[in-house]
Amino acid sequence: MPSLKAVLKEIGSRNRRYRKKLRVRYLPGLWPTLSLFLRIISLFSKKVSPHNHDFKRAILLTGDSPGGFVGRNLTEATEGWIRETVGIGDVSRMDKHAFNRLAESPPLVVVAYDWLQGARAHHPTGAAVKLAIRLRKTKTRAWVMLPDTYRVEVSLSASIIVAIAGGALIILQSSENDAEAYGLPHVSTKHFWTWTPSSLGEWGPEIPWVERDSVALFAVTTDSYRQDVFHEMSGPISELGYRVVPTENLLTWSEYVNLNLRSKLVVTTCRLQGDFLIGPQRYRRLLPKYTVTGRVWEAFAAGAALVTDDNEILRTFGFFADEHFVGLPDPLSEKASWFLPEESELQRIAYAGHLRFIELCEASIQSHSG
């Protein structure tokens, strides 16, 4: 017979699964109304973005137990961005328990993504409201890091905090127009917060493109369209003499970085992944067709020739097909008329894409320091 402790643990686990199911099932349908409400509330709070701040001190609010990371540690990246790019030298990292014991509130709290993830596992709306009210009472602004713009349960918590307390949502993947069309308040974009000077150094020294292995890295996950890209494009690219390597999140971070630095091609899609295409039609109408994934920025940072979808977000950042990257066929069924440029042209495209990316990262630092 199971113990009382085991029974209570199982009940708690079932309740968490039930709450998660409810959020996934009902939140998308409620989001258009909730986001409108939060945007109205945000009219009574002040937007303060990293582009126009005068903060000298900040607290980085983290989750209770960050745990392991697949790929980049986003909390470490956030702290590096605050210090190196935004130029705030006095940064204290705290979990909610240490933060609650503070006698004096700081002028700025930066909410790390692992705090949002931790809140999401328990009572996300209540935790966000409680934090937002406290920040509002003490006139503390909030910057909330939002790498996944369209994960609705996380976006709701982030929007609550910023709408009530003021500050900004720090967007990584999307254009300002797309994020606002989705319904987010106090949006601030063009922050390459995972690409500080020290993190860029992790991707060097750059191996000359002509000396790299003839390898084409494909971003392959459980997403159906990414799998379609792999199945449709791996054959034609392999026939050109490239060794096709699907990454599938099976490598350590250092192995992944080194593989990018040694490869000539990176093939990925900017299509919004199927995991985000949930809910009723009135919610899906708010979602864009494309979003820029981390694989795109990693390819540019590594100096590889990127093959991806031509889309408006990349054009907004100044990346253009045939100049900074090679466009995927759209639709994929038109691959017969698609061709990969000659190696001399690919080398030029890879260099131009890398140079443009470095320019954007440097301009981001200058805009924060200026």
Give structural notes.
The chain has 370 residues and is an alpha/beta fold. It has two domains: 4-194, no CATH class; 200-366, Rossmann fold. Helix content is 48%, strand content 13%. It is built from 14 helices and eleven strands. The protein has helices at 4-42, 74-86, 96-100, 113-120, 124-137, 152-165, 176-182, 197-201, 224-239, 253-262, 281-284, 294-302, 312-316, 343-369, and strands at 57-61, 90-94, 108-111, 141-146, 167-171, 187-188, 213-218, 243-246, 263-267, 305-308, 326-327. The strands form two sheets. The chain has a six-stranded parallel β-sheet, sandwiched between helices. Strands 8-7-9-10-11 form a five-stranded parallel β-sheet, sandwiched between helices. Helix 4 (113-120) packs across helix 5.
Please supply descriptive tags for the structure shown above:
single chain; 370 residues; alpha/beta; Rossmann fold; 2 domains; 14 helices; 48% helix; globular
What is shown here, in short?
The chain is α/β, with parallel strands linked by helices and 370 residues long. It is 48% helix and 13% strand. Strand 10 (305-308), helix 13 (312-316) and strand 11 form a beta-alpha-beta unit.
